[in-house]
Every structure is written in C-alpha cells, then in structure tokens.
Write a structure and sequence with these properties.
Immunoglobulin-like, mainly beta, globular
Length: 88
C-alpha cells in the first residue's frame, strides 16, 4: 500500500496575480517560463507566447480580452500547470 499524504505532492511552481484582472496579469515561477498560452472557457486559444528570455516573471496584457473566465497554461521545461483567472 502506498501512502499518498499531502506532503507527497509538489506545490505548484507558478503564481498569477492580480486575479481578477483588468488590464494585465503577472506570472511568476521559481523556474524559467518557456511558454504561456491563454485559453477561453470554450477551449479556444486566445494567445500563445513563446519565451526565449531567461526570466521567472512576466507581465501579460489582457485588456483586449472580453470579460469572463480564462485559463492560462504555463510551461517550464517538462513542468506544466494550468491556472484560472477572471478578466473583469
């Protein structure tokens, strides 16, 4: 039997703020972010950014998006995470 206590799971490497957002969001990671994809609630890709800079923090303009719920897919090497944000 395998014990899957909370301490066995890694905490997410990515943070997104502010949430909800009006004009821009900031993404931070303890590792380098390679790709950012914004997807609407219907699964349509709204924007994809391939990042070549070795930074762990990025500001993304979201002012042109309609109000609603969006998902942001972040990739850092082999690690991926999907976060949800609300555009006001």
């Amino acid at each position: 039997m395998v014990d899957l206590s909370v301490s066995d799971f890694q905490r997410g490497e990515f943070n997104l703020y502010p949430n909800p957002a009006s004009n821009s969001i900031t993404l931070t990671s303890n590792t380098t972010i390679n790709q950012i994809t914004i997807v609407d609630i219907n699964g349509r890709v709204m924007h994809t950014i391939i990042i070549s800079e070795q930074k762990s923090q990025h500001s993304i303009e979201v002012g042109s998006l309609l109000s609603g719920i969006y998902f942001i897919e972040l990739q850092s090497g082999a690690n991926r995470e999907t976060l949800k944000f609300l555009k006001q």
